[in-house]
Amino acid sequence: MTESNPYHPPSVAPESRHEPSSEAGPRRPSVWRCMLLGAMVAVFASFPSAGFVALVFRFPIPFVGYQSGVEAFLPALLAAFFYGIVGGVVVQAVAGSLGGVAAYMWTRKAEGRTTAKVVLLGMLSALPGLLTLAVLDWIIGPW
Questions:
Q1: 59 in helix, strand or coil?
Q2: Rounded Cα gap, residues 89 and 97, in angstroms
Q3: Averaged pLDDT, 24-31
Q4: Nearest alpha-carbon partner for 39 in 81, 5, 108, 89
Q5: Strand pairing report for 59-61 and 65-67
Q6: Do 91 and 129 touch, CB atoms closer than 8 A?
Q7: Are 43 and 89 contacting, i.e. CB atoms less than 8 angstroms apart?
Q8: pLDDT by residue (tens digit) across 116-132?
Q9: Beta strand extents in the chain (DSSP E only)
């Protein structure tokens, strides 16, 4: 007769019971991480997006006025830097963090691709602030 002692651990090695399974896949980022990434992407995407808005539509260049076309691309990058210094970074960061939350909620029940969607929505959330600058004279009048 074999002795069966319920107080002895099973024959499985204890270190193998607590190892994480590699089948679980990558972990999904938290909502805070999505907000931070979205804010950073929106702030840094503001520069090329400002150039694109100037290329396609128009963009206000400080001390010059509204410019558009190929010759306005580089001045729009510098203008985005100027507007960021005077407070535009906060606006873009808030918009990007909202984009990060939206991406988190979008992928809440789906697996994977959360980071890619945060980057996409972070880049898109930089556009409303830039387009508002581009049409600000239509809203408040010439300045």
A1: strand
A2: 12
A3: 74
A4: 89
A5: antiparallel
A6: yes
A7: yes
A8: 999 999 999 999 999 99
A9: 59-61, 65-67
Please state, in angstroms and rounded to a whole number, the distance separating the CA atoms of residues 90 and 80.
13
Cα distances from 57 to residues 60, 65, 81, 119, 142, in angstroms, run 11, 14, 19, 24, 17
Q: What is the pLDDT of residue 29?
A: 84
| pTM of the predicted structure, to 2 decimals | 0.77
b/e code 83-101 from CB counts within 10 Å (16+ = b): bbeeebbebbbbbbbbbbb
What angle, rounded to 10 degrees, do the helices at 31-56 and 73-83 form?
140
Closest to 41 measured CA to CA, from 80, 106, 99, 85: 99
Let me know: does 37 contact 115? Beta carbons within 8 Å. Answer: yes
Q: Do 118 and 103 meet the contact criterion of CB atoms below 8 Å apart?
A: yes
103, two tokens: 């991406």
The dihedral through the CA atoms of 14, 15, 20, 21 has a sign that is negative
Measure Cα distances from 2 to 5, 7, 9, 91 in Å: 10, 15, 16, 73
The tokens describing 97, both together, are 């963090």
